[in-house]
């Protein structure tokens, strides 16, 4: 069985810049903040959903299986099945993809699929030596044994391991994500200025979208228990310019690197949900879908060049569906790093790369900047890793609707050497 | 939230040992040498300690004394809790029949329980209050099921404990803690009870039988703590008693509330001698039972029951949408969410929605919710700038600006978006429902739902019908009040409804008096000495002078009767933005908290108190004559639970009857000749 699957609606929180301390919301708090208004504005009852899937990379100890915690806190009932997906930066798209396949295959009718991430809550952990010392202490019986164990204590044990830093480092190549972007910048000859110009444009586009109200249905204000209201993505710099972007030193490979804090995605907290429904559910509840999910693709490549994940996943997806570059009118390509996005564009426009790696006859083509990340991306918005894949699918659907485009692809690179892509058609 | 599996499994069943057969009032059964006495009063969902309960216990004790078992377990068969205390309805008869003799019989039974040679264990789930707690205190040990609470709230009825609480509790726990519990009437919840030493152990219901067994296996005695020993000395007690008296005086002046003062006397005099204390407790309780204060406080208790009766039934309201995140809208939303409703709070601005969330957290904290419960309450309260909740709400409460035009504009906007069958209620305090009803989407399902500020503290809600409100709407609104633990009074539309109609002349007269040169502290002190919780000037500040002015003007325009002229000072303050508590200053400076005036009244005008109080009584008589409220008890209840009208006086109409309708009407005529027509008594006095 292969049934049409619709993206009915979706909403997200504003993406909130991490300020060097835990932010006001945990991953589930964020999921609840945008899930409540999303469910309130539907014509069906929340219990009409059959499943909740949530992508989340950095799960916190109080929220094991955040999907289930979120489902219960959203009032979806004790009998709502919910599970969490994790494929690093693709987690929020993996949740949609799983939902898409379940509905397509006929086992489910309506699924809430999301992503949630609070990078500001990423834990500080103890060093392995410290953990071992604690173990010895707790096993030591009697004062003598305890005193002996105590002498093993070293001050360095308590220098915490920053979970976020470890999480953004590839465990196979030991390169951190920024370094993989440096590799791409070198291989595809992307200079600092071009990367900075790309970053500036990202900020200007997001600022315009916010001003024009294009995000009003997508971004729901979040309210913390202290009464602070977060209305919009707060990492945006509307007045971003080349002088400003030229200032920061390379963030990952000093002194000669090209990747800076200014032309990289920001570290943020945020959550996003979409509602997927079968044709039957659309008719039954009289829903007005935003788009139809046509197909999806995951690909894998060398971890050191993980930034090319979009090229490896989106190209076969397009080709399989008989689409040339011109047939795909809108692209959401997650902006992990400006150099990484530009490297993807360069690879698609490189006949040799396309022949050898993608098995095409020649170059896939040049993606026009007017079709790519039209309302900004992770450089201006931020990149809450488990959420971004969800956001780009949701925003692609909204932007296709606004601009009247028939077809679009959302795609992302994934730390560890993966790529994910999803093809949408106007509903 | 209960899923199908827990629904199937049902409520956790109470472990009643072998005592499974219902029998009134005590079930008795024995297994493994342990006797279970299970209290199961017939015809009620909660146990009260009646004469039959005590006599039944006496019969059981006969058998237990004859052949003492290995142990005795006392608990309740009612899921609602252990016992709510004495049967208050029987107090009048008891007072008439010679209370002291009856009390002595009761004491003798509990003394026998305490003297049983075998271990006795009270197992308490839910509340154990008053005489219920006193039975538990006569046992050797107490096991609290998580969620249990223990309290001696007699002081709220103008009494103190009368079945041994005054000497058994101070003997069991730190005597100062015991006195605090008895003087405030506040309950100790599970954890506190464990900490104080009231409960020997806290367990879940599922471990109760095992806990009883373990306790019987390891019975051991105990001796009083150090502090208890120190307080056996007269001087230490005298010092402590002095402190208690000064604290108690602030909240409960002896003239109005004698009971706590008698309790302190008892303890100071006999705290070192349980037997003497027991005798003195009996005599003092019997005496307090006959005081007007206790009679009127018992009346207030029944008035509350009266309002609760009117709040019974299903409200059919799962989701409430509140329009307007101002002070009132925000707190209504917060309270409803704390009490379990799903709530959306709409406002065109997001900043007040943010403040509403912060306020809701404070309300939830003040209501003693745990961190997880606070999280859940805040999850239920959804700030809704887009008004998505309108289409889902079973009840929409409009708390928008107080003008007919704005409210009508709101109704025009929301009407088409509301769910069919939903009720629209307005929280207006000053506008006529008859003026608003034409704008409402469905007049039959439109009514007033007037909360008082602060919603979390003020228990009364006026449910106001206009001529076209249907019965079912009024009933559902009253049931809604019940479901969020507020007390509804059903009223017909009238300027100021009942409570503001009655309070406005009181507030305005205070301002006239100030203009005449009487100090605000003198005015407020006079009202407080009469028994009001707060003087009229401080109350005006607390309500907000802008709101007071608005209500005053609207009442002056809407009523046939003359009201005091609105003072220029009030208008000036409102113009300057000195609005009272909310701006930090009005007539009083609120920067140091709520003012507590205590002035010398020697030079106060002779008619000061009557000028303040009688117009309030007169307005109540007028509302009764015009059938605004159904009956005098509803009026008295509303005034006590909305304004704190001197509860020890039994309510304004009860006080008026006690003092004499004719006397008051005469006094008002005299005041009218002196101060103007606003004091002319209502024609209704003749029928009171």
From TrEMBL, chain A:
Pfam families linked: Thiolase_C (PF02803), Thiolase_N (PF00108)
One function term, GO molecular function aspect: acetyl-CoA C-acyltransferase activity
Thiolase C-terminal domain residues: 288-425
InterPro entries, per database record: Thiolase, Thiolase-like, Thiolase_C, Thiolase_CS, Thiolase_N
Domain Thiolase N-terminal residue range list: 5-280
Residue positions of the active site: 89 (acyl-thioester intermediate), 383 (proton acceptor), 413 (proton acceptor)
Coiled coil: none
UniProt similarity note: Belongs to the thiolase-like superfamily. Thiolase family.
Protein name listed in UniProt: Acetyl-CoA C-acetyltransferase
Annotated source species: Cribrihabitans marinus
TrEMBL record, chain B:
Pathway, per record: Lipid metabolism; fatty acid beta-oxidation
One GO BP: fatty acid beta-oxidation
Gene Ontology MF terms in the entry: enoyl-CoA hydratase activity; long-chain (3S)-3-hydroxyacyl-CoA dehydrogenase (NAD+) activity; NAD+ binding
Superkingdom of the source species: Bacteria
InterPro entries: 3-OHacyl-CoA_DH_CS, 3-OHacyl-CoA_DH_NAD-bd, 3HC_DH_C, 6-PGluconate_DH-like_C_sf, ClpP/crotonase-like_dom_sf, Enoyl-CoA_hydra/iso, FA_oxidation_alpha_subunit, NAD(P)-bd_dom_sf
Extent of the signal sequence: none
Enzyme class: lyase
All residue ranges annotated as the 3-hydroxyacyl-CoA dehydrogenase NAD binding domain in the record: 319-493
Catalytic activity: a (3S)-3-hydroxyacyl-CoA + NAD(+) = a 3-oxoacyl-CoA + NADH + H(+)
This protein's UniProt keywords: Fatty acid metabolism, Lipid degradation, Lipid metabolism, Lyase, Multifunctional enzyme, NAD, Oxidoreductase
EC number of this enzyme: 4.2.1.17
Residue span, 3-hydroxyacyl-CoA dehydrogenase C-terminal domain: 496-590
Family: In the central section; belongs to the 3-hydroxyacyl-CoA dehydrogenase family. In the N-terminal section; belongs to the enoyl-CoA hydratase/isomerase family.
Protein name per the record: enoyl-CoA hydratase
Source organism (scientific name): Cribrihabitans marinus
């Amino acid at each position: 069985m292969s049934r049409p699957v619709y993206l009915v609606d979706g909403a997200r929180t504003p993406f909130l810049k991490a300020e060097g301390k835990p932010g006001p919301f945990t991953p589930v708090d964020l999921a609840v903040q945008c899930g409540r208004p999303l469910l309130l504005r539907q014509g069906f009852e929340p219990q009409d959903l059959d499943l909740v899937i949530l992508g989340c990379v950095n799960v916190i100890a109080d929220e094991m299986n955040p999907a289930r915690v979120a489902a219960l806190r959203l009032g979806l009932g004790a009998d709502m099945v919910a599970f969490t997906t994790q494929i690093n930066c693709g987690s929020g798209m993996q949740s949609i993809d799983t939902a898409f396949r379940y509905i397509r295959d006929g086992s489910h009718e309506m699924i809430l699929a999301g992503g949630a991430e609070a990078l500001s809550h990423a834990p500080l952990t103890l060093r392995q030596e410290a953990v071992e010392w604690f173990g010895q202490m707790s096993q030591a019986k009697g004062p003598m044994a305890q005193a002996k164990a105590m002498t093993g204590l070293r001050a360095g044990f308590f220098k915490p391991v920053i979970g976020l830093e470890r999480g953004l480092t590839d465990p196979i190549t030991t390169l951190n994500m920024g370094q993989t972007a440096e590799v791409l910048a070198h291989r595809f000859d992307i200079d600092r200025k071009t990367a900075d110009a790309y970053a500036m444009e990202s900020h200007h586009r997001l600022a315009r979208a916010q001003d024009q109200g294009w995000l009003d249905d997508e971004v729901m204000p979040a309210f913390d228990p202290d009464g602070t209201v977060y209305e919009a993505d707060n990492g945006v710099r509307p007045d971003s310019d080349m002088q400003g972007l030229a200032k920061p030193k390379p963030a990952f490979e000093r002194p000669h690197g090209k990747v800076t804090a200014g032309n990289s995605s920001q570290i943020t907290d945020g959550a996003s949900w979409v509602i997927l429904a079968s044709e039957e559910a659309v008719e039954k509840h009289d829903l007005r879908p935003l788009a139809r999910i046509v197909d999806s693709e995951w690909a894998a490549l060398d971890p050191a060049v993980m930034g090319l994940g979009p090229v490896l996943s989106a190209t076969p997806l397009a080709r399989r569906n008989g689409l040339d570059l011109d047939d795909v009118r809108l692209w959401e390509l997650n902006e992990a790093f400006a150099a990484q996005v530009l490297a993807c564009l360069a690879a698609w426009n490189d006949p040799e790369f396309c022949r050898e790696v993608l098995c095409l006859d020649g170059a896939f083509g040049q993606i026009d900047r007017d079709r790519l990340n039209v309302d900004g991306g992770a450089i201006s918005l931020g990149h809450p890793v488990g959420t971004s894949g969800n956001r780009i699918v949701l925003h692609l659907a909204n932007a296709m609707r606004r601009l009247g485009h028939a077809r679009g692809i959302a795609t992302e690179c994934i730390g560890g050497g993966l790529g994910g892509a999803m093809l949408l058609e106007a509903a | 939230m209960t899923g199908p599996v827990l629904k199937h499994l049902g409520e956790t069943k109470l472990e009643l040992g072998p005592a499974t057969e219902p029998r009134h009032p005590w079930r008795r059964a024995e297994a493994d040498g342990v006797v279970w006495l299970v209290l199961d009063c017939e015809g009620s969902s909660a146990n009260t300690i009646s004469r039959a309960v005590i006599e039944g216990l006496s019969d059981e004790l006969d058998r237990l004394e004859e052949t003492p078992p290995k142990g005795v377990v006392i608990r309740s068969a009612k899921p609602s809790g252990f016992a709510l205390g004495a049967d208050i309805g029987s107090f009048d008869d008891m007072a008439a029949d010679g209370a002291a003799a009856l009390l002595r019989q009761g004491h003798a039974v509990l003394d026998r329980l305490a003297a049983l040679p075998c271990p006795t264990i009270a197992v308490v789930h839910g509340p154990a209050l008053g005489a219920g707690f006193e039975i538990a205190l006569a046992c050797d040990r107490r096991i609290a099921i998580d969620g249990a609470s223990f309290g001696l709230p007699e002081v709220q009825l103008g009494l103190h404990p009368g079945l041994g609480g005054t000497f058994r509790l101070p003997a069991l726990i730190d005597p100062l803690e015991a006195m605090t519990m008895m003087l405030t009437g506040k309950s100790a919840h599970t954890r506190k009870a464990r900490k104080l030493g009231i409960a020997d152990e806290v367990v879940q219901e599922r471990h109760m039988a095992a806990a009883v067994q373990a306790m019987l296996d390891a019975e051991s005695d105990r001796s009083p703590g150090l502090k208890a020993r120190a307080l056996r000395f007269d001087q230490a007690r005298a010092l402590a008693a002095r402190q208690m008296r000064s604290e108690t005086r602030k909240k409960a002046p002896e003239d109005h509330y004698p009971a706590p003062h008698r309790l302190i006397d008892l303890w100071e005099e006999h705290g070192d001698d349980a037997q003497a204390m027991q005798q003195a407790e009996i005599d003092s309780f019997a005496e307090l039972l006959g005081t007007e204060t206790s009679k009127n406080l018992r009346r207030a208790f029944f008035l509350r029951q009266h309002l609760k009766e009117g709040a019974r039934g299903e409200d059919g309201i799962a989701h409430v949408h509140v329009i307007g995140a101002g002070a009132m809208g925000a707190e209504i939303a917060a309270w409803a969410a704390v009490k379990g409703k799903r709530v959306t709070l709409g406002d065109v601005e997001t900043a007040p929605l943010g403040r509403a969330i912060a306020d809701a957290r404070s309300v939830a904290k003040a209501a003693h919710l745990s961190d997880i419960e606070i999280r859940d309450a805040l999850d239920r309260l959804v700030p809704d700038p887009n008004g998505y909740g309108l289409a889902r709400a079973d009840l929409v409460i409009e708390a928008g600006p107080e003008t007919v035009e704005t409210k009508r504009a709101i109704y025009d906007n929301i009407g088409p978006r509301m769910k069919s069958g939903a009720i629209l209620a307005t929280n207006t305090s000053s506008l006529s429902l008859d003026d608003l009803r034409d704008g409402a989407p469905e007049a039959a399902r439109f009514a007033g739902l007037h909360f008082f500020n602060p919603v979390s503290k003020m228990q009364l809600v006026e449910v106001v019908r206009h001529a076209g409100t249907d019965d079912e709407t009024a009933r559902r609104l009253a049931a809604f009040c019940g479901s969020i633990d507020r007390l509804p009074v059903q009223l017909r539309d009238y300027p100021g409804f009942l409570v503001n109609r009655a309070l406005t002349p009181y507030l305005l007269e205070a301002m006239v008096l100030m203009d005449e040169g009487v100090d605000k502290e003198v005015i407020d002190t006079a009202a407080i000495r009469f028994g009001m919780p707060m003087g009229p000037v401080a109350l005006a500040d607390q309500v907000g002078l802008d709101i007071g002015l608005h209500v005053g003007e609207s009442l002056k325009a809407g009523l046939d009767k003359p009201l005091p002229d609105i003072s220029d000072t009030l208008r000036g303050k409102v113009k300057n933005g000195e609005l009272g508590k909310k701006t930090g200053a009005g007539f009083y400076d609120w920067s140091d908290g709520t003012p507590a005036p205590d002035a010398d009244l020697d030079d106060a005008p002779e008619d000061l108190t009557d000028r303040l109080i009688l117009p309030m009584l007169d307005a109540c008589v007028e509302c009764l004559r015009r059938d605004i409220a159904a009956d005098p008890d509803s009026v008295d209840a509303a005034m006590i639970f909305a304004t704190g009208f001197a509860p020890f006086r039994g309510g304004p109409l009860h006080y008026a009857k006690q003092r004499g309708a004719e006397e008051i009407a005469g006094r008002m005529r005299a005041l009218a000749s002196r101060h103007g027509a606003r004091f002319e008594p209502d024609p209704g006095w003749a029928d009171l």
